[in-house]
Design a protein that fits this description.
The complex is a heterodimer of chains A (about 290) and B (about 350).
Chain A (H helix, E strand, L loop, with lengths): L1 H31 L6 H17 L4 H24 L7 H23 L4 E2 L10 E2 L2 E2 L4 H23 L1 H11 L1 H6 L4 H24 L3 E2 L5 H13 L5 H21 L5 H15 L14
Antiparallel strand pairs in A: 1-4, 2-3
Helix pairs in contact in A: 1-5, 1-8, 1-9, 1-10, 2-3, 2-4, 2-8, 3-8, 5-6, 6-8, 9-10, 9-11, 10-11
Chain B lengths: L1 H7 L4 H22 L2 H27 L6 H17 L5 H23 L5 H20 L1 H4 L5 E2 L7 H11 L5 H25 L1 H11 L1 H6 L4 H27 L1 E2 L6 H14 L4 H24 L4 H5 L1 H16 L3 H19 L1
Antiparallel strand pairs in B: 1-2
Classes of the chains: A mainly alpha (about 290), B mainly alpha (about 350).
Subcellular location (chain A): Cell membrane
GO molecular function (chain A): transmembrane transporter activity
Family (chain A): Belongs to the binding-protein-dependent transport system permease family. LivHM subfamily.
């Protein structure tokens, strides 16, 4: 029973991170119809940028902020420089460009920061809360993880629902031509969309790194989990991505706890294939027809 | 001049391709006999990259299905070969054939799922395959050797082959050279089969499915079956490539089949030009001969060995992006454009 509770709690906090990552993928997909396979590598890179800052004696929060700002800039640059020419073209070309970015950023991180495992600090304790006589797998850091993902989701919802900027971004995602006719600077909105998505991705990278070891490939599996979560949620809906993230987090936590951690990625593949074959439009979307 | 050349080339496609393969064999023998053992082992490495890339270029270039899972399929072939060669009783050609068959069977399963996906969905699913499959080797560590992997008994040259080799070249037949011969002969056979397939009926219908699904379906083609077939052919090539890899590297371990391997193969076919077998060969040559050059440059510029080793994947990534942005047809696409321009100018003057 205690093991089950612990696995569930662990799954929830992991799921919150996958939810954030899936959210980043969904933001970009909605705006540009591109799955950003470089998202994980970009998040890894910005997390690495925070590490020397923290190690040189700055506070964790300075590094945290630096990584998020770096994510914003990196996202905007990537969209403007390398993605813009392939947007709207053959979908294979865009996929290949993001994969090129993925491999280049990963190698660049290994060149700049070394390919070894390095420990990344956590701002809060990593010792579980005690309930009665048991220590449960729910730490102050888990609270921080879930809290920050919640804050990001609320902020994004507020942005898209209640601000003029959000309305313009939604409009350019919905129909580029009409928005352009109405005077929306669509190109600028797309750049902004990528930038925001990269910030959310960077946050996911920081949260996974916290209290763990980082190395240039530590986000590889997370791309897969985030992608599965986003597809589970229907790729279109931010709410679906969050629900998908939590479901994937829980499911993979059970697989890892009861079957073996080596099988987690394969389990994710199984879930993905099952979802795509049985209900390709995802569990949480109202769009009737979608080609996968 | 061109007319004379054209008359010399046989009409039949099979004959023409066979002629090409025989010419290729002559070149292979000449090159392998005149280069050092180190170069021989580089050529052996190139042969397995080229086998996998040739299969991938058929799948991605001709049929329009992207696969980031070919590294995982190579792992299936490599582990099959390693297991079969363990006892020492199975001859290696049989082990290679078995590797191709087993990987093709895996390809049926993956292809059946892949046939219903396209573009980013297929990329994501096969990415999951590439990241997930090495975990199997660790999960079944009793059979597959866990992180350390399985060591492979590389075949030794049999007496008659060594004798024939000595008779022809009067040179020693080293282990690396023998493996390079195995790899390149396999590659030539694969290229012959794929070239015939591509020029024939299946190549045509695969292209039709890639270019316009609806039109192809209206013309009575069964999209699912054709897509699965393309995947199976491509998977069998990846399995053969894995078998050659296992024998050349003498090891089948999870660390050899990372996502970087799959992405390197993709780089090779994209840079060479999607859908072109010469392009795939060119791209695999790049995968083998570029890293040492780049690494040397890196150490010359003051990087440590570990850092310099990462320069090659960095260059792959940058090249992948640049090629897609500036010349999506790859090297073969550029050459084709130049060739056409040359013909047009020749005609007008």
């Amino acid at each position: 029973m205690q093991q089950f509770v612990n696995i569930t709690l662990n799954g929830l906090s992991q799921g919150a991170i996958y939810a954030a990552f899936a959210l980043a993928l969904v933001l970009i997909w909605r705006a540009t119809r591109i799955i950003n396979f470089a998202q994980g590598a970009m998040a890894m890179f910005t997390t690495y940028l925070a590490l020397p800052l923290i190690e040189s004696g700055q506070s964790y929060w300075a590094g945290f902020a630096a990584a998020l700002v770096a994510g914003l800039v990196l996202g905007a640059l990537v969209e403007r420089i390398v993605m813009r020419p392939v947007e709207g073209g053959p979908e294979l070309n865009a996929v290949i460009v993001t994969l090129g970015l993925f491999i280049a950023l990963q190698a660049l991180a290994a060149i700049l920061f070394g390919a070894t495992f390095q420990s990344f600090p956590a701002p809060f304790g990593l010792r579980g809360f005690t309930v009665g006589e048991f220590t449960i797998a729910f730490t102050p850091f888990s609270v921080f993880v879930i809290g920050s993902v919640l804050v990001v989701m609320l902020a994004l919802t507020a942005l898209f629902r209640f601000t003029d900027l959000g309305l313009r971004m939604r409009a350019s995602a919905f129909s580029q031509e009409v928005s352009r006719l109405l005077g929306v600077r669509v190109g600028r909105m797309l750049t902004l969309g990528w930038a925001f998505a990269a910030v959310v991705g960077s946050l996911a990278g920081l949260l996974i790194a916290g209290g763990n070891l980082v190395h240039p490939a530590y986000m590889d599996a997370v791309i897969v989990y985030g992608f599965v979560a986003a597809v589970l949620g229907g790729l279109e809906s931010p709410g679906g991505a969050v629900a998908g993230g939590l479901i994937i987090g829980l499911a993979l936590s059970y697989v890892s706890g009861y079957l073996g951690s080596e099988l987690v990625t394969l389990a994710a593949l199984g879930i993905l294939v099952a979802v795509l074959l049985v209900r390709p439009r995802g569990l949480f979307t109202r769009v009737a027809e979608r080609r996968v | 001049m061109r007319a004379v050349l054209r008359r010399l080339v046989p009409r039949s496609l099979l004959l023409r391709n066979l002629l090409g393969v025989v010419a290729g064999l002559v070149v292979v023998v000449l090159v392998l006999e005149t280069t050092s053992p180190f170069r021989n082992s580089q050529f052996a490495t190139m042969s397995y990259y080229a086998i996998a890339a040739a299969g991938l270029t058929v799948l991605t270039g001709l049929n329009g299905q992207i696969s980031l899972g070919h590294g995982a399929l190579m792992a299936v072939g490599a582990y099959t070969t390693a297991l079969l060669l363990q006892g020492g009783s199975v001859p290696f050609p049989l082990a290679m054939l078995a590797a191709a068959v087993v990987t093709a069977l895996v390809g049926v399963v993956v292809g059946a799922a892949a046939a219903r996906l396209h573009g980013p969905y297929l990329a994501g699913a096969t990415l999951a395959l590439a990241v997930g499959v090495p975990g199997l080797a660790i999960y079944f560590d009793g059979l597959l050797g866990g992180e350390q992997g399985l060591s492979v008994r590389s075949p030794r040259p049999p007496g008659w082959f060594a004798d024939a080799h000595y008779f022809l070249t009067a040179g020693e037949l080293g282990g690396a050279k023998y493996l390079a011969y195995i790899g390149w002969i396999t590659l030539l056979v694969v290229v012959l089969l794929l070239a015939n397939l591509m020029a024939g009926r299946y190549g045509r219908v695969w292209r039709a499915v890639r270019d316009d699904e609806v039109a192809a379906e209206l013309a009575g083609m069964r999209l699912g079956g054709l897509r699965i077939l393309a995947f199976v052919v491509s998977a069998a090539c990846a399995g053969l490539a894995g078998a050659v890899l296992a024998m050349v590297v003498r090891l089948a371990a999870p660390s050899g089949f990372t996502i970087v391997l799959s992405l390197s193969l993709l780089t090779a076919v994209v840079v060479g030009g999607l859908g072109s077998i010469p392009g795939a060969l060119l791209g695999s040559a790049l995968l083998v001969f570029l890293p040492p050059a780049v690494t040397n440059l890196g150490t010359g510029a003051g990087l440590t060995g570990v850092q310099a080793a990462q320069l090659a994947p960095f260059v792959y990534g940058v090249v992948l992006v640049v090629v897609m942005l500036l010349a999506p047809g790859g090297v073969m696409g550029l050459l084709r454009r130049l060739w056409r321009r040359g013909i047009n100018q020749g005609g007008s003057t």
